[in-house]
Amino acid sequence: MAERTVFQSMSQRHVVSLGPQATIWDAACLMTKANCGSVLIVDTASALLGIVTERDLMTRVLAKALNPATTLVSEIMTRNPRCVGPDVLVSDAVLIMIERGFRHLPIMGAGSKILGVFSVRDALPREIGTAVELAEFHEQVNDALG
């Protein structure tokens, strides 16, 4: 069986986004309503500026006792997030996530069009297993090369 691409595996095909002047409260409400773990921050031309995830809400807002009603998403978002194209294999996307320590990966199409967000939850166990094996191999190679 051929491995799926990130675009084929995305559970949600619509883009969940807000402008940079939205509050953390807005982001949390939107993520809850859309039942997703991230929101893309875009400018008026729909260009990607950043991403806010559920982990960001916990570590960058709650843990720092910021007021979600007055804190802007632009203040805590991850700017210029790593993105991949729609034809990237799921195991390669999961490997990027493992090595860089995040769980959401924006998918960008031709002309920098935002197609959605790949979540590690969209991966099948065998695809995650392949990525873990690749990560372990990369670690062994790095250790051997010192």
Quick overview of this protein structure:
The protein has 6 helices and 6 strands, in the order H-E-H-E-E-H-H-E-H-E-E-H.
Topology:
Layout lengths: L5 H4 L7 E2 L5 H11 L3 E5 L5 E6 H9 L10 H4 L1 E2 L10 H11 L3 E5 L5 E6 L5 H21 L1
What does it look like?
The protein contains six helices and six strands; from the N terminus they run αβαββααβαββα. It is of the alpha+beta class. The chain has a single domain, classed as CBS-domain. The protein has a four-stranded mixed β-sheet with strand order 1-2-3-4. The radius of gyration is 16 Å and the shape is globular. The mean pLDDT is about 90.
Classify the secondary structure makeup into a structural class: alpha+beta
Within the CATH hierarchy, at the fold level, what is the topology?
CBS-domain
Number of strands: 6
Helix-residue proportion: 40-55%
Highest CATH level, the class: Alpha Beta
Tell me which CATH architecture applies here.
Roll
CATH superfamily: CBS-domain
Gyration radius from CA atoms, angstroms:
16 Å
How many domains is the backbone divided into? 1
Straight-line N-to-C gap = 37 Å
Q: Main sheet: which strands, in order across?
A: 1-2-3-4
**Portion in strands:** 15-25%
Uncertain ranges: none
Number of helices: 6
Oligomer: single chain
Order of helices and strands: HEHEEHHEHEEH
The biggest sheet, with number of strands, parallel, antiparallel or mixed sense and barrel status, is: 4 strands, mixed
Average pLDDT for all residues: 90
Tell me the overall shape: globular
